[in-house]
Amino acid sequence: MGVMGRLKIFVVKEPVVAASCLIAGFGTPSSLPPQP
Question: The organism sits in which domain of life (predicted)?
Answer without folding.
Answer: Eukaryota
